[in-house]
Amino acid sequence: MLHLFARKVNQTYLSEASAYLKKNFEAPDRMVRYSLRASYNPQSIDNAMKKRSESIGHAEDDDALNRYVNATFVDHLCEYIKQKNLKDPQVYKAACLDRRLFSKMMSDPRYQPAKDTAIALAFALRLNLSEVTELLFSAGYTLSHSIQRDVIIEYFFRAGIYDLSDINAVLEEMAAAYTIALIISLRTYERRGAAFEADGN
């Protein structure tokens, strides 16, 4: 196996992620259909919308809620960056994204990211599970309990572990046993820059 990370795998993370996978993975042949709304937390989108609705003045409820429902991935991304009081370089560096790609993304309200890019940005923003669901949903994705890697990624969000090097090290360690791909091959991505995103779509 090609080891891309100098950081030694955290054995606690590895043990807990393995246990979480065994407990929560649902084999595909047990699934009737896994739609976007049948996410790992089916009520999370509704709860997020309800929370947002409650935070909006009653006189503006309908219009504001419609704008929220129709918001794009980039709209949600910009809002989270503002909420977390982060600067753009902090976000794209933590997500291991090329600056040019991030700039292209932020300048195009209809930009459609690859799923791995959206996940990496969610980690960079240090989102909780409800926020992750919302951000991925806005890009047309979800974390599915019928996909092993998604279950492991869910564990890291639940545990509040956001460093991609730690996360990828665990995924790499588990890859042979579960045929799991890394979230982002950091060094390869740094060399290829925006081309990675094109390959992911």
Describe this structure in words.
There is one protein chain. The chain has 12 helices and no strands. The chain starts with 10 loop residues before the first helix and ends with a helix. The chain is globular and about 40 Å long. The chain is an all-alpha fold and 201 residues long.
Radius of gyration: 17 Å
Shape: globular
Biggest sheet: strands, sense, closure?
Answer: none
Total beta strands:
0
Structural class: mainly alpha
What is the average per-residue confidence, as pLDDT, rounded to a whole number? 77
Terminal residue distance? 26 Å
The percent range for helix content is 55-70%
Uncertain runs are 1-6, 30-43, 185-201
* Discrete helix count: 12
Topology record:
Blueprint: H1 11-24, H2 44-55, H3 61-69, H4 73-83, H5 88-94, H6 99-106, H7 115-124, H8 129-138, H9 148-159, H10 164-178, H11 186-192, H12 195-200
Helix pairs in contact: 1-9, 1-10, 2-3, 2-8, 5-7, 7-8
